[in-house]
Structure formats: structure tokens, C-alpha cells
Amino acid sequence: MSSLARSGLRSAARSATHLRVPARTLTVLASRAARVAPVPARSVPAAVRGMKTLDFAGTPEKVYEREDWPLEKLHDYFKNETFALLGYGSQGHGQGLNLRDNGMNVIVGVRKDGESWRQAIEDGWVPGKNLFSIEEAATKGTILMNLLSDAAQTSTWSHLQQFVTKGKTLYFSHGFSIVYKDQTKVVPPADVDVILCAPKGSGRTVRTLFKEGRGINSSVAVFQDVSGHALEKAVAIGMAVGSGYIYETTFEKEVYSDLYGERGCLMGGIQGMFKAQYDVLRANGHSPSEAFNETCEEALESLYPLIAQNGMDYMYKACSTTARRGALDWAPEFEAACKPVFERLYESVKTGAETRRALEFGSRKTYREDYDKETDAIADQEMWRVGHVVRGLRPNRK
Ligand SMILES: NC(=O)c1ccc[n+]([C@@H]2O[C@H](COP(=O)([O-])OP(=O)(O)OC[C@H]3O[C@@H](n4cnc5c(N)ncnc54)[C@H](OP(=O)(O)O)[C@@H]3O)[C@@H](O)[C@H]2O)c1
Known about the structure:
The protein has an eleven-stranded mixed β-sheet, with helices on both faces. The chain has two domains: 189 residues, 3-Layer(aba) Sandwich (Rossmann fold); 130 residues, no CATH class. The chain has 18 helices and eleven strands. It is of the alpha/beta class and 398 residues long. Helix content is 51%, strand content 14%. The longest helix is centred in the last third of the chain and has 30 residues.
């Protein structure tokens, strides 16, 4: 998933990571009453170590921060565990390498001689030492991290479930398989903890932020708590895979918001909006260069980073009064036009229609090629062909 414009659902999350934002946007809550009297963030830690309750614009939420889980504590916590990553796609790569760099006992399980097997070897995993078939890794692991594609989680479950034995932990990075069990048939045995940690970004970003000493924001949830420590374990794993801060959710809320967000502002919505704006400029005689700069390049290179840094108002204030006047007037028009689409989208997620489509598509033998065909078609749109040229003109690309 692109890191582009993760302002919508994630603006609160970003605010929390950059706690130097004005205290009015994010304040620590000692109690509900404190909501009316903002105090600087972090000044009032909650009683439970490793967890704080923060005021997210009037709603108190618990958050967990990396500083509460130093490496020594993580090493001690997981000293008897073997993390078995089943699947080595984008998340397997990011979470696996971060776990390994954090000194955890971690092995990878993928189809022998598939694309992931090749990629894992390239990343330094060694066949027979810490790289195995899915079955071998699932047998050896105590924390089974199901990071197969969502479609593969469905198609492999009838075979894989035999390895999910009493006392093990079943981990996901998405609520998909569990929540839509009517379609996926993924029903874990009753004697294992079932948890999730869902990084709010691509596995590639999970890795790059970790290497930069930063961290991805993640959510955690518990579906089944047999050990009595499932939530704490989910938080600890979240930290071990490289999260910066973690918030709590449920499997259902995670999957609804995730499917909705990526179809909306994060990916689908942004492509649709860029394309509509670009096409109208072109239809009115603007050059490709002008249409692209006024639609995408300025957004991505100049304005969205300002939103990411300090919020929408900050970006507005950084622009001319002329720009501000027009944006203030037109924003409600766009909101009104988009809202019915978002409502229809949320409904489509909730009814399982989006899941059905993803499962149908993802379980085709030709899924990689079929997806590539459609994304190649985007790359072939005039707007993105122009983008290729414009990006090449950025001085730092030369
Ligand atoms: N990517 C993201 O941005 C993101 C963010 C948060 C959470 N998540 C969640 O994290 C999980 C993993 O997602 P991902 O994007 O990392 O992975 P992905 O690209 O969707 O899946 C890749 C893995 O699934 C394996 N696979 C596919 N079909 C298989 C089959 N029939 N049998 C065995 N293995 C099969 C692939 O192995 P081969 O190479 O052998 O085909 C590969 O190792 C999902 O639940 C996803 O929703 C993803």
C-alpha cells in the first residue's frame, strides 16, 4: 500500500508519532475530566507501564510506545519463542527482517522455489537453517505469523490448521481471514491465542522506517485469549516487528477500516481524483506538463508533506491567501460529492462484497499477471507517463 497521502485515517496516528505538534491537537488524559484542560502530551503517563491514554480530539484512546519495550525486555519476553513467518511478501520481508535485526529467533516458511523463496535467499535467509517449507516452519514455530496473501490464507487453511496446535500463537496482520470466516473458512482451534498486529503501511515502509530508526504505526487486536496475556503479546510482537506506536482495535474494525481506507483516500480515491482533475485540465487545452504539475507533482512534493508534518491547516496557511480562499470554498463541495461514494464503499466492505472480489481475484492461478496487467494500464495512462518524465527532472534524480 502506498504511503501516499495517508492523511485521512492516519492523521490522528501521525499526530501521535510527532508529539511535538501543538498541545491542542494531542493531549494526555489522566481522566475524562482532563479532556477539557489540555496539558502537554506525555506529561501524565497512565498507571499501567507500557500504555498511555491519550486524547484524540476528545476521544480517549490507549496507545503503546516503543520506549516502553526496550530490546532487552523483548529478548526476555520472547526467549522461549520461535517466530515462524509463513509467507514472505511485502509484510513478511519487512516484519521478518526487523525481527531478525532485533535479535529474535525467527524462521521463514514459503513455497520452495517460488518467488518468495528466491527473495528470502536474496535477503540472507538460509535454506535448512532459517528458511523452510511452509509445513516445516509451521511445525518448528511457536508463534505462527500467517503472512500469506489473504487469498492464500483461505486456500491453505484446511492443510495448515493441523500445525496450529495447543499453546501456540496464531498471528495475522489483517482481520480478513477471521472476520470473513463464512467465505474463508478460517476458524482457529479453541486452545491457541489468536492476535493481530497490522502495520499501517506497506511492508517496505515497515522496513525502511525501522532502518531509519523510526517506526510504522500499527494496530493490535485479540480474537482469542487463551493464555490470558494475548494483548500484551500482540503489543510486544508489534514492537518487535518495528512499530513506532500501537493502538488497539478489534479484528472486525481493523479489516473494515483497512479495506475501506485503501479503496478510498489511500489508493483508489486518490487515483480517481488525480485522474479526473488531470483529464479536465487536458480537455481545456493545458499541456501535459502543466496538468501533471498542477495535479500530482505539487501535491506529492510540496503540499502533502506539509499536511503530514503538521496538519491540513498548516498546509493551508503555507499557501497564498488566493489558494486558501478557493480551497476553503471548494472543500465542502468535494466532501458532499464524495460522501455518498464513501458510504457505498463502507457498505460494500461490511457486506463482504469486497472480500469476495479480493478472494476470487487473488485465488486465480494467474493472479500476479492479472494484477500486473491492470497496474500496467495505470502506468500507461498519459498522466503517469508524464509523471515519469517529470520525476526524472527532479534535480535529486539526476
Ligand atoms: N502489503 C501491505 O501493505 C499490508 C499492510 C498491512 C497488512 N497486510 C496483510 O499482511 C498479510 C500479508 O500481505 P503481503 O502484502 O505481505 O503478502 P502478499 O503479497 O499478499 O502475499 C505474499 C505471500 O503469499 C504467498 N502465497 C500466495 N499464494 C500462495 C499459495 N497458494 N500457497 C502458498 N503461498 C502463497 C506468496 O508466496 P509465493 O511467492 O511463493 O507466491 C508470498 O509469500 C495479508 O494478510 C495482508 O492483508 C499487508
